[in-house]
Amino acid sequence: MTYYLATPAPEAIDLGFVQLGWFKVLILGIVQGITELLPISSTAHMRIVPSLLGWPDPGSAFSAAMQMASLGAVLSYFWKDIKSLVGGTVRSIADGNYQSRDLQLTLGLIIGTLPLGILGLLLKKTLNAPNSPLRGLVVIGVASIVMSLLLALAEFQGTRERGFGKLTLKDGLLVGVAQALALIPGVSRSGSTLTAGLFLGMEREPAAKFSFLLGLPAVTLAGAIELHALFKAGLDANGWFVLLVGLTSASISAFLAIYGLLRYLENQSTWIFVWYRLAIGLCLIVGSVQGFLH
Q1: Of 206, 254, 195, nearest to 105 (Cα)?
Q2: Model-level pTM greater than 0.85?
Q3: Tag placement on the chain: N or C end, fewer CB within 10 Å?
Q4: Cα–Cα nearest to 283, from 149, 148, 140
């Protein structure tokens, strides 16, 4: 998953997804929704799938707007947890209990967003530039391979002794630093945060849950910025319909991806994602060099 925290001028927005039509966008929405929340990089898949099918690139605006789909999926799936966490935080502040677990965890989730925002501001010109070097296929491939190796190392070294109830403000900050790396296409936000969580001794399933919740502030901001930009760009009724189809399919697939990942990590390791990311990275590099991926 790659964040888009800054938007270029309206005339520079790539609206390529409109020309694809609703059916192709429906398919890409499913791909985006699944890969956005699994630790396998949605950016890599949104480059590979259209290329293999002979479709044009849907554009960065599509990928950024699709973040609202993952937002909806996370909110609906974890609604009870979020409601409980917010309620506990408010009660803790009212009672002056500033050491409560709910307040500490909420502060950790908020503070964990800061590294992403700071790095996003520093890199926004490079990330948004036409033909940005950071969005090249080789860069995405290398990033995917590096993250697969780091995830493998986390599987070896992680103690997996800490559940969700033991997470703190410090965890939010450290995992937030890892989240900021998701600005580099191919890193994957869920991949980098899950890896960081395992390095910090978290159990696999709580680490994934923490990753999803940590992304809420940034996903909300990034998605809202992109939707506002599309309004300013003058997207017509057909364009909004096509986008809505993509958002709907992405929301459903993202919800199922959350359910599947959490159930899987209850009893299984992340090695399947290690090998998959390694294969995807090699595919991107070889495909770029050989010319069958563009």
Answers
A1: 206
A2: yes
A3: C
A4: 140
